[in-house]
Amino acid sequence: MGYSEYLAAREFLINNGQPIIAYILLIALLQGLFAVLYLITKKDDKYTYFKKFIYINTFLYLIGFIFLIWFHVQIYNNVLIEYPSYLKPMIPVDSSHFSIPLWIESEKLYFWAMAASFFLLAIRNKKEIASFTGFIISIFSTIVYFFSNPFKEPLPVVHSEIIRWYSALGQGDGSIYQIAGTLYGRITYYYNSTYMWTHPPMLFIAYASLIITFAACVYMLIRHDGDDDETAYRYARPGYILLTTGMLIGYPWAIEAWKDSSWWWDPKISGSIMMWVLYSAYLHARIYVSRGKLRRTTAVLGIICFVSLVFTYLLTYLVPGIHSVVQP
Amino acid sequence: MKLKNYDYYLIIMTAVILFAIGLVSLYGITYYNYLAVNPEWTRTNQYSQFIEDMNSYLYPLLVLLLICLGLCIPKRLFEQNILIKFSAMALIFTFILTLELGIETGLGFLLAIMIGLQIIVLILTFKKSKVIRFEKEGYFTRLGSSILHLGLIILIFNFVTLRENPFHISIFWIGMLLVTAGNILSFYPVKMVSLLGNK
C-alpha cells in the first residue's frame, strides 16, 4: 500500500481504458450514422443496426465505468494522507483517505453519457425519438473522447494534489501547512462529502433523462403528435424529480462547505435556478396539455429548458464563480 | 370569468412568472460575469450590493408567484368571489407590511398564510373531503400536489425569513422531503396505488 501502487493503478487505467474509450468513439460514430440513416430512409434494418450499436456502446460504457470504480478503490486503498504530528493544532484528524466520487473532473461527462445510453435502451416503439436521441448521444460520446476523456489523464486535479502532498512531505518545509490545510478541506468537504456522492449523480441522471424529453419535444414540434408529447413527459418526470432533489441537496452542502465564501447568486447557482424554474414552467403548462391545448407551447418550452440545461452545465467552463474551473 | 378559463389563465400566469424568474437568473449570470473582471470583487461591498440587487429583483416575482399560488391553493377551498376578496386582503396586508417593515417581512407574512392554507388543503385532501377542488383527478395526484406545494412554500419561507434560525437546516430537510415525496406522488400516482394498495 502506497504511492507507487497508486501510480501503477493509474498507469493500468490509462493502458486499459484508452482502448475502451476508442471503441466507444468508433461504435458511437456508427450509432450516429445508422441513426441518421434510419431518420432519412425509415428502413427497419437501419434501426436494427442502430439498436445493436446502442447495446454495444452501453456495455462498453459500463466496462469503462467498472475500470473507473476499480481505480477509485485503488486510490482509497493506496493513498493515505497521514498528517505529521506538528499539524495537530490545525488538522483535527491523524489521517485521511480519498473517497473520490465517480463523477468529477473528466469523469462527469462520461457518467452523463453512460446514464443517457441506459435511458436510451429504455425507449420502446419510438424509433424516431430513439434515433434522434442516439444521434445526440453519439455527438456526446465524441465530445467525451476528445475533450473529457477520463482515461487519457485520469483525475488530473486529484493527481496533482497527491503529488503535491508527497512532494511537500519530502521537502519538509513550511509549505506543508498550507497544502495540508487545503487538502484536508478538499477531502472532507468535497471528495468524501456525502453530498458529493448524491448531489452531482442525481443531476447527471436527471440531465440524461431530460435529453430524451428534448428529443421528444423536437419531434412534437415537427409531427404535432400527442404521443411525442407523452414521451417527453414520461422522461421529464424522473428528470424533474432528480433535478429538484439533487439541486436542493446542494443547499446544505453549500452552507457547510462554503460558509466563509461568497456563493449565493454564483453563476452556476443562478443557472440552476433558471433551469429549474423553466422545467417547472414546462411541467406546469403541461397540466393543460391533456385537454389538447398548449402542446406546441410546451414543446417549445421543453426545448428552451434543454438549452438552459446545456448552458448551465457549460457555465462551469465559461463564467468565473465558486463552481467554475475558469478564473477571471 | 368562468372557472375553467380562470384556471387556464392562472396556469399560464404561473408559467410566465417562472419564466421571468429564469430571466432574472440569466441577468444575474451576465452581471456576475461582468463584475468578476476584478477577481477580488466578492470580497468588496460590490458583492453584498449585487446580492441585495438580485434579491430585490427576485422577491417581487416571488410575491407574484405566491399570489398565483395564493389564488391557486385557496381556490380549492373557496368560491371564486370569496377567493378574490381573500387574495386582495392578503395582498393589501403584504403591501402594508412591505412598506412598513421591508419586503422580507411582507413576503414572510404572505408565506405564513400560504403555509396555513396549504396545511388545511393537505388535511382535507388526505381525508378525501368533497369540499376541496383540484385541476387533476386521482387521490394520490392530489395528495402529491398538496404535499409538493406545502414543501415548496416551506422552503421559500425558510429561506426568506429563517436564514439565521438554528432550525434553518432541519426545516430545510422537512421541506425537501415534502417536495420530493410530493413530486413522486403526483408524477406516479398509478404506481403509488399499486404500491400502497389504495385508491
List the main descriptive attributes of the protein structure presented here.
heterodimer, A: 328 residues, mainly alpha, 2 domains, two-stranded antiparallel sheet, 10 helices, 2 strands, 2% strand, B: 199 residues
Q: Could you give the topology of this structure?
A:
The complex is a heterodimer of chains A (328) and B (199).
Chain A: H1 3-41, H2 44-78, E1 80-82, E2 95-97, H3 107-122, H4 127-147, H5 156-171, H6 175-191, H7 194-223, H8 226-257, H9 267-285, H10 295-318
Antiparallel strand pairs in A: 1-2
Chain B: H1 3-35, H2 45-72, H3 80-101, H4 103-126, H5 139-161, H6 168-187, H7 189-196
In short:
By secondary structure, chain A is mostly helical. Chain A has helices spanning 3-41, 44-78, 107-122, 127-147, 156-171, 175-191, 194-223, 226-257, 267-285, 295-318; strands spanning 80-82, 95-97.
Distance from N terminus to C terminus of chain B (CA atoms, Å) equals 33 Å
Radius of gyration of chain B, CA atoms, in whole angstroms: 19 Å
Count of beta strands of chain B: 0
Task: State the largest interface.
Answer: A-B, 39 and 40 residues
Shape of chain B: globular
User: Stretches of chain A where pLDDT falls below 50 for ≥5 residues?
Assistant: none
Portion in beta strands of chain A: under 5%
- Major sheet details of chain A: 2 strands, antiparallel
Any idea what the radius of gyration of chain A is?
Answer: 22 Å
Q: Order the strands across the largest sheet of chain A as they lie in space.
A: 1-2
Number of helices of chain A: 10
Query: How many structural units, i.e. domains of chain B?
Result: 1
Shape assignment of chain A? flat
Describe the sheet with the most strands of chain B.
none
Query: How many domains make up the 3D coordinates of chain A?
Result: 2
Instruction: Compute the average pLDDT of chain B.
Output: 81
